Each structure stands twice: as structure tokens, then as C-alpha cells.
Amino acid sequence: MLGTGLIGTFYTAALHAKRSRDRVGVVYSRSEERATRFAEEWGVAVSTTDLREAIEHPATDTVVIGLPNDLHEEAVRIAAEAGKAILCTKPLARNAEEAQRILELVERAGVFAGYLEDLCYTPKCLKAVRSIQDGAVGDVMWVRSRETHPGPHSAWFWDAEQAGGGPIVDLGCHCIEIIRTYVGKGNRPVEVMCWADTLVHPIEAEDNAIALIRFESGAIGQLEVSWTFRGGMDLRDEVAGTEGTIWLNNFLRTGFELFTSGGTGEYVAEKAETASGWLFPVGDELTELGYVDMFADMFDSLDSGREPRETFYDGYVVNGVIDACYRSAASRQWEPVEIEWRGGKARPIERTAREYDGKVVIKEEKLPDGRVKLILKDKTTGIFEDQVVSGSGVAG
Amino acid sequence: MLGTGLIGTFYTAALHAKRSRDRVGVVYSRSEERATRFAEEWGVAVSTTDLREAIEHPATDTVVIGLPNDLHEEAVRIAAEAGKAILCTKPLARNAEEAQRILELVERAGVFAGYLEDLCYTPKCLKAVRSIQDGAVGDVMWVRSRETHPGPHSAWFWDAEQAGGGPIVDLGCHCIEIIRTYVGKGNRPVEVMCWADTLVHPIEAEDNAIALIRFESGAIGQLEVSWTFRGGMDLRDEVAGTEGTIWLNNFLRTGFELFTSGGTGEYVAEKAETASGWLFPVGDELTELGYVDMFADMFDSLDSGREPRETFYDGYVVNGVIDACYRSAASRQWEPVEIEWRGGKARPIERTAREYDGKVVIKEEKLPDGRVKLILKDKTTGIFEDQVVSGSGVAG
Amino acid sequence: MLGTGLIGTFYTAALHAKRSRDRVGVVYSRSEERATRFAEEWGVAVSTTDLREAIEHPATDTVVIGLPNDLHEEAVRIAAEAGKAILCTKPLARNAEEAQRILELVERAGVFAGYLEDLCYTPKCLKAVRSIQDGAVGDVMWVRSRETHPGPHSAWFWDAEQAGGGPIVDLGCHCIEIIRTYVGKGNRPVEVMCWADTLVHPIEAEDNAIALIRFESGAIGQLEVSWTFRGGMDLRDEVAGTEGTIWLNNFLRTGFELFTSGGTGEYVAEKAETASGWLFPVGDELTELGYVDMFADMFDSLDSGREPRETFYDGYVVNGVIDACYRSAASRQWEPVEIEWRGGKARPIERTAREYDGKVVIKEEKLPDGRVKLILKDKTTGIFEDQVVSGSGVAG
Amino acid sequence: MLGTGLIGTFYTAALHAKRSRDRVGVVYSRSEERATRFAEEWGVAVSTTDLREAIEHPATDTVVIGLPNDLHEEAVRIAAEAGKAILCTKPLARNAEEAQRILELVERAGVFAGYLEDLCYTPKCLKAVRSIQDGAVGDVMWVRSRETHPGPHSAWFWDAEQAGGGPIVDLGCHCIEIIRTYVGKGNRPVEVMCWADTLVHPIEAEDNAIALIRFESGAIGQLEVSWTFRGGMDLRDEVAGTEGTIWLNNFLRTGFELFTSGGTGEYVAEKAETASGWLFPVGDELTELGYVDMFADMFDSLDSGREPRETFYDGYVVNGVIDACYRSAASRQWEPVEIEWRGGKARPIERTAREYDGKVVIKEEKLPDGRVKLILKDKTTGIFEDQVVSGSGVAG
User: Fold this and answer.
1) Which of A357, B147, C155, D210 has its CA 20 to 30 A from that of B332?
2) Other C-beta atoms within 10 Å of B305: how many?
3) Could you give the dihedral angle defined by the CA atoms of residues C73, C75, C79 and C81, in that order, rounded to the nearest 10 degrees?
4) Taking the model in full, what pTM does it have?
5) Rounded to whole angstroms, how far apart are CA atoms C176 and C224?
6) Which residues on chain A are in Cβ contact (under 8 Å) with D146?
7) ipTM exceeds 0.90
8) CA of C349 to nearest chain A CA: how many angstroms apart?
């Protein structure tokens, strides 16, 4: 385990969770004090402040990188050279160029490499993707992924140099991969339109951004990220398909509602902005945020020699989209996503084209009395008209 | 009452609602059969297919226009000439040029003119605006307004010539005015970035669109409209402010949940796509969609000689933003909103600028143990660091 | 308007709401100062501290009683003698005996009498009742009505002598009539089982109670009332029918969610226990709590000479059920509801009795593969078994 | 694993979940065909129809009993004799007498015994219990636990002889233990008042029941069970405390909402009553229903030699409460819970007793203007009055 911050703690808690077979054996931190404390707290045998030593240690089968973004490449290089399996936190890199170098490192070394994009592994996401694959919503037309909170906990996130940017990098990387998961990994992100601004915090990076991503099929992804949101952490995804709709709430409204007068002054729920009033905790954060299912997929994939759901290539695509976001925010127009595409061709969203009585059926609607109302367009005159028909309409 | 379609019915039902003093006295329809039927159903004394006769009828104090978009200008002209008070449905016109002519007609005639934008009068919207004015959310940074459903009921909506466009015109006009209501009517909409596409229906107008509107204060409005949404009618607004958040759901999740096996084959809820399973009706559509409060404001304003909340000038601004949406969708870049602005100047969103120990405070966060964690930036070195302080942080 | 407390204010606000034809012309209060202040605030021409004067005043067509429970009978007596129409707040009386005397007063005088049970007039309740009447949920089996908050605002409520009891009287009167509305007014409440206790407040009356009401049809009503609930005012109703389910939330979760840091110290939402954090106001309390529709029904009924939805007889039945609650809480067993019943006979809940292959069908369930699984009971051996059949099951 | 029905499948899926160390090694079913199929499907080495063989098999460390209720005692006897650790599904037995015999079997044999009450292990329940222990809601006054669905899947549940009763046994066992978990395991269930009826299904057992359980502290538990609920599976818990409130929704409203036109005819979500319209699946049923955390606690407890959260004694107490429910439903009055109590004494709910100005403070309420309104009772005269005081009220 490289890194002992919030993400290192989440990862270790998930790896050690419940009846898991997996254990952290070696921990690295840049600070000796934190390395030692972490090792004690989690029962890790070896702790070190020497990155190479941690990676090359014989007890290390798999290197889990939970370091600031600017340190990923170096850690991957050492681990790839050591021939170890590598799991790297999100985002893979600060930009697509760096991501591509990282991708090449692991591909050249031939080591197993998994991209730790936890929010594509939430139980809700996994179930929703299965529903989509079963055809429950038809063709996906639009996906909205929103991740907003009042700003990150650690100092380095706020430094654009170390982080590579603001919430577009920090939170947008989640949204982009969530969107790809719903529109289909084989659906090429073609171009991006992005607005970004620094509205509140005294920083150089953006603290708010919205972007549209147009995919080859015609589908649109919409990401909304913010470091200025008030009220907790808002993690919501919405999918609109030709035959259905999916609304997921991963954090603030999950069927857990707690009101407290706050009289005790105790800590009652994580990531809430207040200690009293109505609070909305989640049951088990490690599971709800996808950590448990993510590591299960990673280690099961490693054990069985197959690719995990989230690969370094996915991380590279995400960085490609992020780069396009920043270019678009600057140029104020749509910018192409410049990546080496391996995903094949996607078919366009299916359009209905039915006729009734020689006219184009624009819409069909069931009336309360059982009859069907059609909106029709005459192909020659171009005139639109209503028509109410009995029976089952067009199908009849 | 000019028009006997769905909107004419809603308007009349709202005007006659409960213990109202107001009554429809004359009804006009292009079809004699519908005019007569409507008059009977609603107890209206006079019905006619002659537009001028309806308007100039001595029983007509106020002309309520509920006609297709391309017929607004003509109706306003006759009513203005007749010196009658005029209430016109949304959108005011098909484009800003037409809207400006309509605006000039009423201003030159000096008649009372109200813009029937019902969704700015929902009880939730009115209450939310008061909360914002009381400072509950601080400065508004972002407003999202979403209106989507599976497509309109009447044929003329689908004809871009009569309607002036697709859902950007039909639904976006609501969203734009809702957004203006939350960011402040004195906050100039500066420019627009819009994506629009025809994904499903065999029509020439768009059936889906998303637009960003940048306001003078720096606030961003986001509108999402669709005629392909599945699951009913989604009317949601969200406001993010520097000190708070508002989430409104006007239709699909309002505390009314009904499951029915559908065994009876009866009609159980409006605007639902299915007759069985989980349905989400609203209690009283006329109130929930704002019609009752809207007409109360219109007639109270008329009686007391003041301007209503929603004026023809507001309708003109909305058309100006819609025009910019279409230009942006075509040019694929931000387009200025070209309107004659009467709203004055807005101050920018307030940015925090506090210091601690000579360093810039980036973020302040209460820890479970009562201490405060600061993220600080050294102004000379540019280095970011965490610091945990006791007491009440910066204020201390 | 007799009474200038919270309820008098709500009533007057509702009567004067929007474009209403109705106006309060005379106001009575026991305190001269409050009478005068109320008259000024609401534009009421006449104010007095003489009850008889207020009632007999020529400007008074209809007497609206918004007084403490122990003063209803006297006010009704004077109004009945004066031959005025009477609207009385809930509960009608402190017990069934007093209620019966009140009922006799108005019936002997032959005056119009309406029972101001607002929560049976919420838009959601009215819509839900129509759905039930249309068969959407089949036969009603169970209704839960819950009304809880942290305790009333005025001192007299807490005095069991003036009020007639605690929340069973104050809030239970709503729940009982809501339950009757859903199971059907012609469905006799037969017996009651009630638990009541004083858990928190230093009072003699109960501060918490739960009661079950068994109706003639076999349906069960369940009321839950509390003056110790934390988190606002919880007004929820649930209906379980043989063919469907209804869940209504009248207050705390109605699609209006507001987070505020509370920095301004301003008042942002009514009936919330906190001034910061997540708050859940309703859009328009007068409408959402039923006041507007209630008075519309009352005055429309009065104008057209028909009975209103809620009559003094209904108020009397409610008091009869409340009495049974107190008797049951004391005797710790089911107690009969002792009332003079005018509602006729109700048919029992319909039970299914289908057979398949000569066996009793206990349950039928659609499998994912389209087949139907039956649970069957052999009528002779009494043995239960599963059987999977193709096609549409019993119907096939 | 004894039993291959739905519960055996859930248990095995949970035991094999993700990176678990635990595996099912031997499976028993009464039917050879199901034993073999199950073994193949789940990769279980040994399958048998001989109960004793399964239990005594050397590969069996721990016996997991997932059999119909009437077969628990026999299985426990054989396992206890074999000295194996035993985990038994809920309810422990059909009645308290049988439960006591089972308890004695394991206590005499000295084997590890865990009670598989999964719903006390849902992540939400575990988190909520921690919040209560941290004082977030003060003293618990009332707990409502509701479990309702349209009826069980397997035939034996419907046979009162095999099952021991209807939903009081099948679902009430969950509710009772959930309620105990919230009011505290050391809080003795003193007496029970229960209503039960057979409203719809042609069975001898009840298909609906509601019960109140009074605990030593004064707290009230309320269980609602039904086999006739329409709309899916309703699993909700509510806790009211002196300082706060908890509302949990374990199934139907967990932040996952899916609308589907159902056009594909595919299976899209479990336990939904319909294949189209709005559906509300959960993300990961095994986790959300508590199976994963339950087995983790069981095996961790077994490994470390401590008692699990849920013991056979807990199962026995549950059966004691169920017995009292049936006695009360028959006698129509409160019935004592007849159990051998090992839980010690509980302190009563704390009642406030503050004074102001020599008077009893009944209620304290913050006004919008910052002042405090007190409701006071004069101890000598017994008169109630309002008083508005500045500052912080009683504390000041």
C-alpha cells in the first residue's frame, strides 16, 4: 500500500473487510510517523518511507498506489520494473500524455494493471449496468453524472501542479468513467464542450465545471463537478434511454434518514456538514462507494488471468477526456477527444420510423378510454395532425 | 379565453377554481365544435370562432391567449388595439424579434400585459425564492432546471414552423425563466452554450437539448429539455449557493406514491406512462404547476395597478435566450444573448478571502473532536499545507 | 371568526387567499388586545371580546369557531340560536357526549354545520380517495395515519381539562377521520385497542399513543400520535388494499429540500426544529394542509344547499372513537365504539377463492421466464405444494 | 449447508461472496435432485440426502441450518451431539418451548451457536445502532419495524403446522429482533398486545398482524407484518428517541429508481411485482439484507471465541414474544412475555423536569426572532400559561 491518506485508509479497510482473504503486508508513506502509525492501526507487518523498498519487498505481490497524482508515474515505473501487479488510484495521471506513458510502462512490462475507479463498482452501478445490458432502458441517449462536495480534505488536491487541475481532475475522472460505463465502453467519446470557473475558493484551478461529452452513437454524457456544494457529498447518476430511465443516488438519499438534536456533541455521521438536524449517512461506505466490489474484481481477475473491468487503458481514455475539457474551457468551443482509440465502432441510437395510413407516426399515446391517439405527419404536404384510433394503434 | 386546447382547459379550470371571483365569459376556438363544447363544459356564456369578436366583446375585460405560438402576435395586436388587458401563454413568441414586436404593441397601447409563465409560480418556487431573498443559500452560483416528458399532446407542437422549434421553445422557455427567477431578474444573461440533437422522433426540430447560460454575476444556468424522456414528466429545479442548496421536485416525487395492480382497467393518474405498477401523481395539478398563484398575481396586479411578477419583457428576454440557444447549437460555440437589457447591473458572486497566520485560507473544516482543520496556502512560496487548530478556527 | 390563535390565523389566511370571494367580517377574541391586533392585520372591520355580539352581528353570515375545545359547545349554542351557519374546528368536542349535544343543537336549529377537519381535504387526500373509489387499490385492508410533532404551541392544549386529553384528542382526531375517509364513511368503527403513555413531558395527559380501530368490513385503522417527535411535523398516511398501496407524505418529504449553513441567522422555514442544515418546508402550507379546499367545500356546500364532506356527525363519530381509545388505554383491552350509527352496512373485504386442478390456489407468482408458479393446497389431505405451470396460470 | 431453498441459496451466495475465506463444503437436501443441482451450481464437493452424514462429515466445521422451521430441533440435536458449531436460520423454532429445548441442546453440548437474523446486520442497522449508542437520538421511546410482501415463495411457509404460524412467525421474528436491537438487548420485553387476521388468502394462519411490545424502560415496539402487501417488499424501520429520529428503508426506496417500458420482456429486477413501469431494486441484495455482515460476525466470533451479536438465546426471546402475540390475538388483551430473562435491568426513559420562575417547564420553543417561548404550569394552581423570554430560555 503506497500512501496513508484518506484513500489509503479506505483501500486498506476494504481489503481487510469482513472475511477477506487479502491483506496489506507492506505500507509506504513519505512520512515515517504516518507510516508507523498506519502499520500499527491496520496490523501491517512492514512500514517504510522508501518507495522502492516497499515495492520490491518480497511480501509485496501487488502494488496498490494511493499517492498524489504527480507521483503515480514514478511508482508505476518502479513496480513495472519489479514485475509486480499494479493497482493505481484515480485519476491515472494528470493528463493523457502522462497516462499514455504509464500505460506503456505496464504493457511493455506485461504486468497486471488495474485502474481503481471505485464508483464504477458501486452495487447500484453494477446492477444498473446489468439492467441496461438486459435491455431495460433501450438505447442510452443521455447520462448525467454529478459529483460535488465542499472541497477535498488534503492540501495537495488544491495545488493544481500536484493534482493536474481542480474538480475536473479530482471528481470528473469518476464522472467520465461512470458515463462511459453506461453508454458503453465501445462507444467512442468524440468531442467535449466544457464550462469551468473559479467561483468561490481563492485558488488557481477551477472550483466548478460542467461538461458535455458527445459519443459516437449520438449519446451525450453530462458531468457536473464542484468543490463548493453545500450539504454533504452529492453523488448522483441519471441515465435516459429510449425505453427507460435510471436514477441513482449513491450518497445523500439512500433510505437512511437521521434527525438529531445534537445535544451530545458526539460525532454521528461522516461527510455531513452539520452535527445536528437531519443527516443522511450511508449504511456502509466501503460497500456503497464500490471499494469492496472493486478489489474483488481486481484480485479475482488477477487470480484468473483476465482483464479487470477497469484497466489502465480506461484510465488513459479518462485523461484524454479531461484534457479535452480543459481545452474546451479555454477555447470556448467543442474540442475533439484526442486519444488512441481501441474500442471499435458503436452503432447509432435507434430511431423509430413507423407509418400509419401512409403517414409518418410522430407519437403514439394511450388514452384513458383505451383508444390510441396518434400524431401523424403527411409526407407530401408536411402537415401535422392528431388522429384517435381504436384498438392497439400502430401495432393493430 | 382564446384557445380550447389543454392549456385553455388548465387556465379555465384555474380561473374557476375553488372560491375564485374570476370567470371566463367568452371563449374563442378556431373550431366551432370545440368552442361550443368548451362553453358548455365550463359554463361560458359566449363562444365564437371569430377572434376579433371574442376580444372586442363587452364581457371581455382581460384577454387570455392560449393559442399556438404563431398566432400570439395577431391576437395581441387586436387586443392591444381594443385596449384590453392581455395575458399571454408561454413562450411569448417564436423568436426575440417577434417577441419584441409583441412587447412594443402592448407598451405603445399602454395596456396591462402579463406573461403566463406558470412554473415560476409553483408554491415551491415562490417559497424557495423567498428563502433565497432571506439569504438562506447565500449567493446563487448554479441553477439547474429540467423539464422532460415523452412529447407534447397536440400536433402543432411538432411542427417547427408553427411552434418556432422543438423542446427548447416548448419546455426551455420554462427553464430559462425559472433560472432567471433564481439567479435574479436583474442578473443579465450574457451568453449561451447549447447542444441540441434529434435522437428519436422523425421530426426536423430537436427532441433533446442541454444549454448553459452564463449570467453577469458569474452564475451558471443549466437547462435540460427532452421530448424523449420515459417515466412521466420530470420537473426538477436545483439551486447551488455559496451558503446552501435547494432541490425541488415539482412532479414525479412529491410525497404521493401509489401502487396499483391495474386490475380494474380504470384511469388512475394523469401523465403517467403506465396504468399499473408504481405511479406518482401530484395532489392538485392546478396548484402544483403554479396556475392558481399565477392568475392570482395577474389579477391582483391588474386590480392594484402594479406590474405582475412575469411581464411581457420577461417573455422577450426568454425568447432572446432561446434564440442564442439555437445559434449556439448551430455554431457549436458560446453565443451572446442579444437583447435590449433593462435590468441594471448585478454584483459578482462573493468570494471568500480570509487569512490565518499570514496565509490564505483555502478551506476550513470542523473535525469530529471539535477542532478545526485549515487548508492554507503560503502567499509567497505558493505551498499548500494542512493545519489543525483548536477553538473556532479562523473566526477565533 | 371566533378565536385569534394559530388556527384562527390559518383559517383567515385561507379564507382571504388568492382570488377568494370570502372575507372575515367580524373577529372575536377573549383578549381585547389580540382582537384589535388581528382585525388590523387581516383588515377585519369589526372586532369584539363579546362572543354573543360577534355571532349575532349582522355582518356575520357564517360563524367560524376556532376556540379551545371546552368553548365549542357554548359558541355553537349561541350561533344555532341565532340561526347562523356554523363551521367548527376539530375536534368537535372533548368527548362524545358533549359532541352529541353539539350535534343536537345544530340539527334542532336546522342550521348548516360543517366540521373543519382540514387534513381530509389535503389535495393528496382528495386525489387518493378518488383513486380508491376508481378501484386502484381494490378493497382497503389497512390504513395508517401518523401525526406527530414536538408538542403544541399554545398553553391550553397542555391542560387536559380544557383540551379533553393529550395528542389522542389533539392529533388523533385528524387520524381517525383520515382513516374513516379511506376505509369509507359507511364502514362502522366497531372497536378500538389503544396504548397511551406519558413518556417525556411533565403532564397528566398522555404524550404518546397508538391505537388500532377495527371496522365492520374487517379493515384495520392504525393511528400514531405523539407530542415528543423530533425533526419537525410528521404527517403521513398509508393505505394497503387488496390490489394496491398508497403512501402519502403531507409535510416532511414533499419534494422540497433545502440545505442552509444558517449563517444569516434568518428564519427560513416554518415548523422546522433547526435553523440550519437540511430543512424540508412545504410549498404552500394553506393548500398542502387542506385549508383552501376545506373552506371551498364548506361555502360551496352552503351556497348549493348540500352537505359538506365533513359534517358535525363526522365530528361526533370521531369523538366516539377517541372515547373508546381512552377506555381501552385504561382497561388494556379492546373496547367497543359506542355511537349512534347512521352509516348503514359495509360489505366485508373480498377474499380470493380460486382453484386449479381441484386444489385451492394459495398464491400465484410470475416467474422471470414467463411461466407461473402456483402454491396449492389439497382440500382433502391439507398438503401444500408448489407447481409451475406454463401460460397465464389460473386464468389460463 | 442444510437446505437448498431460497435461504440456502442466499446463505451460500453470501458465504462465497467476493474475496471470502469461507466455503460451503457439504450440502444436504431432502431431495437428491436438488442436492446434486445445488452442489454443481455452487461448486460444493459433497452432496447428500442424509442429514446425519452431512453434519458429521469431516469437511463440516460449522453446520448452517436453512431448513423449514419444524426441522430445526432435529438438526440442532445431531449437530450438537457431533460437537459442531451451529448457525441456525430464523426463527429459531416454532414456539418458545421448542426454542428453549434447542437452546439447552447447544448449551449442554457447549458448542458455538449463532442465530442467523440477517436484518439486524444490514449496514444501515449496524450504523444506526452505533448512532444510538453514541447518543444521537437520546433515549429510545418507540420503534416501528415493518416487513410486508405479497406472500412467501415456498409451499411450506403457508402450512401453519410446519411453519408454526403465518407472517407473525415468518416476518415478525425479524421485526421483534430489530426492535430489541434498537431498544437495547438488556431491555426486557414485558408484555404484548396483538391484532391478527386472515383478510385475503384462503389459509388458516393469519395473513396480517400488528403488535405492540412494551419494554421495561417504557419503550414501545410496534411490528407490522403482512402477506398481502402490494408493490414489492416493504422493509422499513423507524426509531423515535427523546433527542432524535431514525428512518430506514431497506428495500423499496434506497436511491435506485428504474423506469422501463418493459418492451424487451426481460427480467430486470428481483421481488418487483411488475416487469414494467417504475421499479426500485436494491444494489446488492446480499449486502443490503445483512447476509454478508452476519456471516462475517458469526465466523469472526467463532474464530475469536466470543459470542456473536445474535445468539440462540436471542432466538428464544423472539419466540417468547411471538408466543405472546398469538396469545394476545386470541385473548384480545395484553399478554405477558413468558421467558426466562437473562438480560438484567433497564433504566426507564429519562423525563425532563425543569423549572422556570418556580413553575414547571412543559415546553420550550425557539421563536424566529431569537427569543424563547415557554409553556409553564403553576405547581399550586395547576394553570398553564405561555411566556416569551429573551436569551436562551431555561438555560439562561
Assistant:
1) B147
2) 7
3) 60
4) 0.95
5) 10
6) none
7) yes
8) 27
